[in-house]
Design goal:
Elements (H helix, E strand, L loop, with lengths): L1 H7 L19 H5 L6 H4 L25 H8 L5
């Protein structure tokens, strides 16, 4: 039972941008400012919802071309 309570009271060290548990050990400063909205929560300058097509990717991130042997293996259905 001691291990269970120690696991439940553990505070994760990784801070994620979104999501997570709402009541996961807020700091005293965070509780004092809970009524005031933070400017970072309304700003979405850093987040982009646009996607990049495969053609626009830099050469090092593009897929390498498939060889004819790989194409035949895929078209053959894998393990026969």
């Amino acid at each position: 039972m001691v291990r269970l309570t120690s696991l439940l009271s553990r505070i994760p060290t990784i801070k994620f941008r979104k999501g997570g548990v709402a009541g996961a050990a807020p700091s005293a400063a965070g509780q004092a400012q809970a009524g005031a909205p933070s400017p970072a929560s309304h700003s979405s300058k850093g987040l982009s919802t646009s996607t990049i097509s495969d053609i626009e990717l830099p050469k090092r991130y593009q897929r390498r071309p498939l060889s004819q042997e790989e194409i035949d293996h895929i078209n053959g259905g894998g393990i026969v």
